[in-house]
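Workshop exercise sheet. Pairs work together: one partner reads the sequence aloud, the other fills in the structure field after running the prediction. Swap roles for the next sheet.
Pair: D.N. / O.F.
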Amino acid sequence: MKKTVLIVVIVAAAVAGTIFADKATRIKAKPHTRMSEPGAGTVAPDFSAKDLNDKDVTLSQFKGKVVLVNFWATWCGPCRIEMPWLIEMQQKYGDRGFTVLGVAMDEEGKSAVAPFIEKERYDVGGKSVPVNYPIVLGSDALAEKFGGLLGYPTSILIGRDGKQIKRITGLISYDEILQSIESQL
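Structure field:
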């Protein structure tokens, strides 16, 4: 009986500690300040990363376009939710000077990402379609160029002038992403 009580007390203390630590380290975001997040208004850092065909891709290749740099991972549930949205936005706005640039952050790199991209299909407009935007293999060093990541997905919207417009951490609504992109086209 004493062991059971002790175990319950230890578990309760661990849960309470976790809840306290979570609340103490949580960033308080206010909807009306999303546009003034770190990096907004500064020139996006250029970088070079390998795509799934081992070719170098640089952010500067997209100069003059509106770019949504999307940090994601194959194991990330919210990332999978937004992927059909990103595919649709690429279809809808690609010819108007917009592109999504997916940055896969899986530790296993290409061995995890390439089969995932090759296999996965998403329902977009009633059709089963693959990812239609460029995917590069990310790293912690690349993420640090954008100020680091607090979680996945993290997206940075970059305007035609190369300046960071908006940073989105976590899953937000389809309409909010769409409105942000449309405001730049």
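Discussion prompt: The beta strands are 48-50, 56-58, 66-72, 98-104, 122-124, 127-129, 135-137, 154-158, 164-169. What would you look at next?
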